[in-house]
TrEMBL record:
Protein name in UniProt: RNA polymerase sigma factor
Keyword Transcription regulation carried by entry: yes
Biological process, per Gene Ontology: DNA-templated transcription initiation
Keywords, ordered alphabetically: Sigma factor, Transcription, Transcription regulation
An example Gene Ontology molecular-function term: DNA binding
Keyword Transcription: yes
Organism, as annotated: Candidatus Mediterraneibacter caccavium
Coiled-coil regions listed: none
Amino acid sequence: MYDYENSPEPDLIRRAKRGDIKAFSQLYARIYKDLYRFALYMTRHTQDAEDAVSEAVLSAYENLAGLRKEDSFRSWMFTILNNCCKKMLRRGRREAALPEGGAHDRIGENAHEPDYAQWHDVRRAFGELDEEERMIVAFSVFGGYRSEEIAQMLDRNAATVRSRKSRALEKMRSALS
């Protein structure tokens, strides 16, 4: 019996490309929290975030054969999710702000979180960024990507990404002070 939980990502990707649903499910399980966090901060609404993640995962599953580099699965998934979020934002489905707390907001109950007021202020400051700034900060913070990887996903120059990230973080710092 194959050990999906302890298998390296490239093995799971090869299996998933051959139609192994359990392998794809394991890949998804490994990055779900990061995908949801990214979508939540991009769409600023829990239901839209859930819808965007669902749409991205379905699209990824249907197009897995198009993944060229096995070591780029994570960035490929975030690129798909980013496109789903952008499409959702263009449709203007919701104007609601980020949730004020609660079960949808807690991804991983053991995570150390700042107090409510601080958390609310950070979300408000993040919400004041323009769409591209939010994407860059979200890819960096939630996805853990370097500027070069973000640049590739957004079809931008790495130096441009670094400067926009710096400006976005400075805007957030100003809004928080």
